[in-house]
Design a protein that fits this description.
There is one protein chain. The protein has about 270 residues and is of the alpha+beta class. The protein has helices at about 5-55, 60-85, 90-110, 155-160, 185-200, 235-250, 270; strands spanning about 125, 130-135, 140-145, 150-155, 165, 170-180, 210-215, 220-230. About 50% of the residues lie in helices and about 20% in strands. The strands form two sheets. The chain has a five-stranded antiparallel β-sheet. A hairpin with a 2-residue loop joins strand 1 (about 125) and strand 2. Helix 1 (about 5-55) packs antiparallel against helix 2, helix 2 packs antiparallel against helix 3 (about 90-110) and helix 5 packs across helix 6 (about 235-250).
Length: about 270
Amino acid sequence: MNNLPSGLNNYVDQISKVGSELGPMVVKGMILLIILLVLVKYLGKFVASLLIKGGMPERRAAYSVTGLHILVLLVGALVVLNFIGFPAALLFRVIMVIVMVAVAAFVIAKPYIPKLPLKKGDVVSIGGTMGKVDLISVMHTRLRTFDGKVVYIPNHKVLNDQVINTSLRPKRRLDINFFIPYDADVGKVKEVVGNILKESEIVQEKPAPRVVIDKFAPGYMEMKARFWVEKKYALVGRWGLNEKIKTRFDEEGITMASPRLDIHEVSRQESA
């Protein structure tokens, strides 16, 4: 019992001695690690912006920055541990083995890694949600819809759902449908609409625009104006042309028909 206080005192003295020797180094190492983490954060943003400006897809840039983060953190851990007295040579060997295994695994798996069928700035429709891609991260794709909403879609859903990308091709085909009564002069209608399309600055000459009778319905003909525009006019290109067609029809005395639904009442005797 008499030896217990002296043994406890020796144990406390040893802890105090170790703490007094290693404490300052541990504190300095923690400060260095915090500074390193802050630098890595801003370095990652800077490198990502450079890669994207250089033409790298945003998702690939995000993966590259993630790899850079890991590499810098490993090097930082090596420096910090070496600073507090950990065998640097052993840690360096371990890190090099990890890096070489990771690089080999990436090279082998790269051909099998799925790629997103979009990039930042594309106008896409994913699972019925349409918008402009303004962010691609490792985990999700962010769309900004045309009514002001921000939609986050997990990348696994992007890869497994229907994706309609309207920005891949330089041109888009647009259709304008309008209804004409059977007693209207079809030749005149085609001439008027054709001239509007030829005069328009957004309508492409090739493929040449066409005005045709698309369908016949009770009481009217459904006509279609088909033309091609640059992709930047894909969403709003038909609006101005709709107005021009309506104005020119009024000036030429061309009357458009309205689609109608005929309802026939069947009496009980007829149904029997």
